[in-house]
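Structural prep section.
Before we set up the soaks we want a predicted structure of the protein with pantoate in place, mainly to decide which crystallisation condition to try first. Input record follows.
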Amino acid sequence: MRTLRDISALRETLNDARRRGERIALVPTMGNLHDGHLALVAAARQRAERVVATIFVNPLQFGAGEDLDAYPRTLEEDQSRLEAAGCDLLFAPDTAAIYPRGLEAQTRIVVPEVTEGLCGASRPGHFDGVSTVVGMLFNLVQPDLACFGEKDYQQLAVIRRLVADLHLPIEIVGVPIVRAADGLALSSRNGYLSPEQRASAPRLYATLCQLRDRLESGADTSTSLAHGWADLQAAGLDPDYLELRASDLSPVTDATREAVLLAAARLGATRLIDNLTLTLPH
Ligand code: PAF
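Run finished without errors. Recording the tokens verbatim:
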């Protein structure tokens, strides 16, 4: 697996692959790779001849006071894991290559509507940063398809909308959440948790599972969500949101069947997110 740091080398290499008629799959990441990322590489590998991963800790998607500086940078381990997973090419640019004029002067992509509420409410500007860098990576790599994890459910919806609105000829593949044996969704941020916090963290998924069971058997939504909120607090988590939305993230109506429970909660300084799809009864 080759690692490229500059844009012109990336373009040249991918032009060659395209001339050979190879299908290109993109796996964008911020590094510190875990099995959830490797599932993205596996999904890409199944669908394309060339798998291109990117590692870029994107400063534009971090708010003031967030963990940009602390975000784990583990390039060598990531390279070995990507190579073993069958990735062909890693693009790992530095910030100056991506944002040569600096962050303030950067042209941005702003996706409306689907960015409102949920993580969009508690992390203002976050999705503009994600959309901008993903739009840029789409332009640099020009992939046939790109794989994103379903753990970041709202991010996936934002990227689908970006691709639709900009008429980009890219298939977006959502890859199911990979969980630890106790149910905790894998995340690079889980590494911030103390042993005690790590022991409490699976309550987030357990609460979503209990809520799903209640709602699928016809329980009242607001009462169930209030119970879920109290359960999270009782387990030492500080909920940011706990919501039921239609699977396209629009508000739930009487006609909604395919829905999703979405939650974000803090354990100390660490913010965890998770989600679970469900089918509401008639
Ligand atoms: O999900 C992530 O790791 C990031 O938000 C992404 C999509 C790589 C953009 O920086």
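Observations: The first strand starts at residue 2 and ends at 4.
Flagged for discussion at group meeting.
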